[in-house]
Amino acid sequence: MKDAMTDAPSAEAMEAYWLPFTANRAFKAQPKIFSGADGMYYFTPDGRRILDGMAGLWCVNAGHNAPRIAAAIREQAGKLDYVSSFGMSHPLAFELARRIAAVAPEGLDHVFFVNSGSEAVDTALKIARAYHQARGDGRRIRLVGRAKGYHGMGFGGLSVAGISRHKRDFGPLLGEVDHLPHTHHPEHNAFSRGLPAWGAHLADELEAICAIQDPSTIAAVIVEPVTGSGGVLPPPVGYLERLRKICDRHGILLIFDEVITGFGRIGAPFGAQVLGVTPDIITCAKGMTNGAVPMGGVLVNRQVFDTFMDGPAEAPELMHGYTYSGHPLACAAGIAALDTYEQDGIFENTPKTASVWEDAAHALKDAPHVVDIRNIGLLAAIELAPRAGAGGTRAASVMQHCFDKGVLVRTAGDTLVLSPPLIITPDEIDRLFTTIREGLMSLN
Predict the structure, then answer these.
(1) Pairwise CA distance, residues 195 & 375, whole Å
(2) Cα(331)–Cα(170) distance, rounded to whole angstroms?
(3) Which CA distances in Å does 15 have to 19, 27, 413, 429?
(4) What is the CATH number of the domain that holds 413?
(5) Strand runs (DSSP E) across 104-236, as ranges?
(6) Which terminus of the chain has fewer Cβ atoms in its 10 Å neighbourhood, N or C?
C-alpha cells in the first residue's frame, strides 16, 4: 500500500464527532489524523509515515492492512453480511470457536462471542455469578479485582477495575466488589526483566479478603495476567500460582482478562500458556481479529460450560448476548487472523524478537528522569519521575516529541507504554527506542 494522501477534515467536518478518551477541544485545535496504514506504519493526510509503537491500541498484532484479513472481510461481505446468533448462526462462527479452542490453554474449550473487551469482561462476570447460581450456590455474588487493573468501560468492568480516574464520573458502580493490591513496588522490583522476583506474597491478600467477606460469598477473581493500561506490570514470580491455589481452596472462579495478552503479545496464543497458570475463564478481544473488525470472546472451561447444560434442553442456558455476537465479517476476520499468525509464524517469532526488545528498552536505564523499566514479550513501560505539581507532563512531552519524529507511543500518567505489532524488526525497535531516548534527553 502506498502512503495515503487524502485531505484532512476541516474544523467544521470534525465538529459532530465526540471522540472517546480525548480532550476534544484540544484535539480539534491540533488534530492527529491518520488516513492510511500498512505493516508497521500509519500514514497522515500530508504523507508522513508514523511508526506504530502501539499496534493501534494493543490490537494490530499482525501489522496493518494484513492481506489475508482484508481479503477475508471483503469476500464475506459479498456472501453473508449479517445473521443473528439468537437461535440461529452461520458456519464461520462454529469454525472460529473451534480454532480458538484449539490454541487456547487446555480445558478452555467453549467460546462465547461478544464485540469488544468491555463486553467480554461484563459477560465473564455475569457467567461467573450465573455459574454459581446454576450449581445452587447463589450466595456467591462478590467479585474481586485488583488495583491498577483495567477491564474496559462497562459498568461491570469499571467496578472490578482499579484505575480511579476511570470511575470518578460514573458512580455508584456495582456493589459487592473488593480489590487486591497492585504489584508495582519499584523500591523492590524496579528495572525487572520479565517477571519481578519480588512480590508473590501480595497474592495472599486474597486470603485477607476471604477472611473479611467470607469466601463462600465470592464468585470470581479477575486479573490481567500482565496489567496493561495500568502501566505494563508483569506478575511477580509465583504470584499467579498463589492466586490459583487460593481460588481453588475456596471454590472461587479465576478469570484472566487477556484482552491485551491474548493472541501472541507475550509469546504464545494466550498469556496463561507463557505464565504456566490456567484460569477458569479467559476474556479476549483486540488481536482476535487484528483490530480489523470489532470482536471479543469469553473462553470457559468444561466444568463451567457443563454446569449450564443441566437445565431443560429447550430453554436458553444463559440469558445473555448481543445483536452482533458472532458477526459474519468479524468471524471471517478472526479466522484469517489465526491463519496469518500461524502461516507467518508470528507467535513463534515473538520470543526471538522479545530479547532484542528487552535489551533496547533497558538500555534507557541511564536516560534522564527514568525511574523504572518493565517488559515482557513485546510489551514495555518506561516510567519517569513526575514534574513537581505537574504529573503526566514529562511523558506527554516525550510522546509528542516521538510523534513529531514519526513514532507513535502512548502514555499512562508519567509512564510510556509500548506494544508494537508483533512483526516489528530489530531496525524498527532501534528506531523506536532511539527516538524515545532523544525525547528524554530534551526534557527539563
Answers:
(1) 8
(2) 33
(3) 10, 11, 28, 37
(4) 3.90.1150.10
(5) 108-114, 142-146, 177-180, 218-223
(6) C
Contact 256, 282 (CB under 8 A): yes
Measured CA to CA, the distance from residue 177 to residue 169 in angstroms comes to: 18
Kindly write down the DSSP assignment for every residue of 138-157, as one continuous string: TT--EEEEETT----SSHHH
What average pLDDT does this structure show over 252-269? 98
> How far apart are the C-alpha atoms of 365 and 370, rounded to whole Å?
6
Residues 355 and 311 in one domain: no
Examine residue 187 and state whether it is found in any structural domain, yes or no: yes
Same domain, yes or no: 51 and 179: no
Phi, psi of 295 (to 5 degrees): -165, 150
289-309 per-position pLDDT tens digit: 999 999 999 999 999 999 999
Full domain range(s) for residue 44: 11-62+345-441
Q: How far is the C-alpha of 298 from the C-alpha of 100, rounded, in Å?
A: 11
**Residue 83 CA neighbour count, 13 Å, CB half:** 13
The verdict on 384 and 271 lying in the same domain is: no
For 84-125, how does the pLDDT look when each residue is reduced to its tens digit (9 = 90+)? 999 999 999 999 999 999 999 999 999 999 999 999 999 999
Domain count, the chain: 2
Q: pLDDT grade, residue 5 (50/70/90)?
A: low
- Considering the entire predicted model, what is its pTM? 0.97
DSSP H or E run through 42: strand 41-43
